[in-house]
Specification:
This protein has 187 residues and is an alpha+beta fold. 28% of the residues lie in helices and 26% in strands. A hairpin with a 2-residue loop joins strand 8 and strand 9. The longest helix has 23 residues. The structure holds the ligand Nc1nc2c(c(=O)[nH]1)N[C@H]1C(S)=C(S)[C@@H](COP(=O)(O)O)O[C@H]1N2 and molybdenum atom.
């Protein structure tokens, strides 16, 4: 009787605390080259402050953070690769993109902010409302037509909106379609 009670109590404790612990678990360490760094209002991280020597490229861009979530390609792929076919008016053809949804990237880092700023290698940055990321399933594309987006091209990541699926997105220009994106600041 007492033993049964103890077992039940243990099971309840597991049920109550296990999900909370899973939520709080930090990200794994990237094994391959880091292609995306997320910082700002996030609760899950896997690295400490920017180091002036090691993080030379970020230092060059006057980037600052105390902790961040760094992703290699495998970590981004593990968030769940989605597919999206898009033809922008000015493009020569339609592309079939593959990558995680931005909402899943934000979920993985425990983002709590209302807007994000996506920055590219050339210093370009664009603000995107988290509400739009939720509503439109905005993609962080890693691949186009089966090939990884590379450095010197539009890679390592490219923000792509499902503009052919929503009439209101058709009116929007592509200022928020940041290519060569390497950093996201959650605000
Ligand atoms: N990295 C990066 N991404 C960017 C930009 C940029 O200057 N750098 N310009 C944005 C703007 S304002 C537009 S209109 C489109 C331009 O896309 P294009 O390079 O195919 O002309 O990319 C968007 N993404
Ligand atoms: Mo633009």
């Amino acid at each position: 009787m007492l033993r049964g009670f103890a077992v039940a109590l243990f099971a309840i404790c597991l049920a109550v605390f296990a999900p909370a612990r899973a939520e709080a678990a930090d990200l794994v360490q990237p094994l391959g080259p880091v292609v995306l760094t997320v910082h700002g209002k996030i609760t899950k991280t896997n690295r400490g402050p920017l180091n002036d020597f090691d993080d030379a490229f970020f230092k060059f861009g006057n980037v600052r953070f105390d902790k961040a979530a760094s992703f290699d390609l495998a970590m981004l792929q593990k968030l769940g690769m989605k597919t999206l076919k898009v033809k922008y008016d000015t493009w020569p053809k339609a592309y079939r993109f593959e990558g995680p949804h931005l909402r899943d990237v934000l979920k993985a880092v425990g983002a709590t902010g209302k807007t994000i700023k996506v920055y590219a290698m050339d210093g370009y940055g664009a603000e995107i409302a988290v509400a739009d990321i939720e509503r439109y399933s905005v993609m962080l594309a890693l691949k186009a037509d089966g090939k990884f987006l590379g450095l010197g091209g539009r890679g390592p990541t490219w923000v792509v909106f499902p503009r052919d699926h929503h009439p209101e997105l058709k009116q929007q220009d592509d200022a928020k379609w940041v290519w060569s994106a390497i950093r996201i600041e959650v605000e």
